[in-house]
Write a structure and sequence with these properties.
Blueprint lengths: L2 E3 L5 E2 L19 E3 L3 H12 L2
Antiparallel strand pairs: 1-2, 1-3
Length: about 50
Amino acid sequence: MKLHCTNCNYQFTPKTGKMPLRCPYCDKPGTVEKVKQMQEWIDEFSVNANE
């Protein structure tokens, strides 16, 4: 699982496999999100195109 920080754009893979509460680089809470895989982008765009 790859994660990134929406505050500083730091990308990392957590060693424990758990979603951290804070960015390990800038230490800001609530800014860590999962990096979308290509298939997730494709699925999201195809759903929006059908609406």
